[in-house]
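Example record

One chain of 559 residues, shown exactly as stored in the release files.
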Amino acid sequence: MSLKDFFFSSEKNTLAKKYLIPTRIIKSESAENAGWLLSDTPRQALIKVSGDCTISDGGYVVLDFGSELQGGVDITVNKVLNNNGEHCKYGRMRIVFGESVTEVLSSIGDGNGALNDHATRDMIVSTCSMSTQRYGNTGFRFVKIEAVGCCLQLGVVKGVLEYKDIEYKGSFRCNDERINRIFDTAAYTVHLNMQDYIWDGIKRDRLVWIGDMHPEVSTISAVFGHDECVERSLDFSKCCFPIDDENSASWMMYPSYSAWWITIHRDWYMQNGNKEYLLEQKEYMYKLINSMLKRVGENGELEFGNRDAYFVDWSSNGTPYMQAGFRGCFIMALGAAADIFGVYGDKDMQKKCLDAAENVKKIVPEYDGNKQVAAMCALSGLCDEKEIEKILTKDLLSGVSTFYGYYVLEALAKAGNIKAALDVVKGYWGAMLDLGATTFWEDFDIDWMENAARIDEIVPEGKIDVHASYGKHCYQKLRHSLCHGWASGPAPFLSRHILGVTVLEPGCRKVKISPELCDLEWVKGTYPTPFGVIEIEHRKENGRIVSKISAPDGVEIIK
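Predicted structure tokens for this chain:
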């Protein structure tokens, strides 16, 4: 199928809308009765005005909606006045969206990274009296409305949350409320990015980056079960990078991105058991795997051209550790491909993939200077997980990224140190909550906590502005996305290793439940399967774990 055919055959809107009242006013200037905008009034203009918020020329009001949203704002303008106080039909207003208070108070091009990238978040628009209109489509929590060359009488401002109206089937609760908040925030971060396709970020990177999707799909499996946006995104990526003239597949920008496409397909099949969909990928899968196999030498050499071909994540980009991370990703994809060819019934291709994976393991490049890369080495079997554990536990919260940090958690779990992984969840991801986050960020460094101001307040004198000060690579300063789906790793980690759920057979037909409570007294939750949810509860009693498990018909539980 061509990309054009894909668009015309499958493009559709599956999103719902919810209208939300602002929770507080952050700041206002030359705005009378701004508190009126916090009342729950109908989204309807009035001819006879009473109780409006009146904003004079150059004045503004900054509103907080209490949580990160994907969407825009509905603004009801009851009356436009000129600067002499006379009614006029038309006027202008500036609308600025921000994921932090600093961002909403910033201007494009002022040197702190404020941009209109992928979504216009700073705009001057025309308006008129007796109008209700929606503006914007971006990721935000805060909105600034400024009168430009006129006076505005605003009746209503409501946030418009645009989202998939789907059930949170998977859940996680324990006696530590911080961990509960982290699970919920991870799930919500991905939910906002589940539009018609899976995006990386709702403000920036509103793109289908297949190389970044694996943590998001893992979260979707643990929280929502099946959702068509996963398959739509996988197919979209395939259509964007079709089979080339050499009868093999193009890389999905980077070879590692193509590798993740394979791994996601295997994991998605294990969760949902849709063999028909996996068979639809058969031709492309063969071409892609053949492209990978012919680049693996018998002694472990990899032939992928220039250095950039070994990109896996930003934390290792341009460092000596790139190739080790790439090898780990590549080995994992070859293992996933072997599983897929097992479903296809092709034992010869299955063996080729496994043999190639063993060949790749013959060379172990430098890896011990980057925790993300080290984690990939452990998970792929390129290096011993116990040796990797020493690297991951040194300065436990340092050197972790929000993206490949998921694999740091998984590598610690593989080494049997689930307690350390849980400490990373609480200390690293929890630190973003301490700074006012309601969704998890594109990147975060634990060192940013020193003397840091919260993102939901005007930065006090002497404090460091986290959003405007930090970041690197493509996410510098205010360009940095504060809602990035790849940062959701704690949700699948908690489901798998604390609640104890491991899928053993496609479609969750056989599920192993083996909890690890660490210092927790109890944990309970649900896990979605194609047959319904598994209900799970574990408690410590007299030094042992007592479990209650209820599974739907069709799901075999192994303890």
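Notes: The CA atoms of residues 319 and 409 lie 22 Å apart.
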